[in-house]
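User: Reviewer 2 asked us to show a designed sequence for the structure in our supplementary figure. I'm pasting the structure tokens here. Could you produce the per-position amino acids so we can include them in the response letter?
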């Protein structure tokens, strides 16, 4: 039996290619020892991230990557969006907080900055047979991270 047939490498099906895509990392934070004012907090900009999307090779070429630009939405807008796509009874019984088939495209559409995307376009992308669940999840999870990941607050021993 060839050595490659006995390889212990796990198949790609275990970890979809899109799940391995580079997730947007928080930007490095400059540590400052001054206390923020209310004005500082109000002036903070929204969070943004470049999210890579991989395109398969064409005509014997190499796969390519392009990026989409995404941004966060406010906590109130996020909560309103979740409420707008309440789970049905079966989904609620399973512990779901929203209807995933409707909420996922809605959040992607709301967070997509470049290219802009309507809800109908995001839904079409979600249902597109050329997009795997993991590939769409890359966009959805990036949007969720932008909206839900907490700020990096370095706590001191005295604070």
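Assistant: Here is a per-position design you can include in the supplement:
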């Amino acid at each position: 039996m060839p050595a490659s047939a006995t390889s212990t490498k796990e198949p790609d099906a275990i970890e979809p290619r899109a799940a391995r895509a580079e997730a947007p990392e928080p930007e490095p934070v400059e540590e400052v020892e001054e206390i923020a004012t209310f004005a500082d907090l109000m002036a903070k900009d929204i969070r943004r991230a470049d999210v890579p999307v991989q395109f398969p090779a064409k005509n014997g070429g190499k796969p390519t990557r392009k990026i989409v630009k995404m941004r966060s939405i406010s906590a109130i807008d996020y909560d309103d969006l979740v409420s707008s796509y309440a789970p049905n009874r079966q989904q609620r019984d399973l512990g779901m907080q929203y209807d995933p088939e409707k909420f996922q495209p809605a959040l992607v559409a709301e967070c997509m900055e470049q290219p802009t995307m309507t809800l109908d376009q995001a839904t079409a992308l979600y249902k597109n047979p050329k997009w795997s669940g993991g590939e769409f999840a890359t966009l959805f999870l990036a949007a969720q991270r932008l909206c839900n990941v907490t700020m990096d607050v370095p706590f001191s021993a005295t604070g």
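For the response letter, you might also mention the following. Strands lie at 48-55, 64-71, 112-114. Helices lie at 38-43, 75-84, 89-93, 100-111, 119-127, 133-148.
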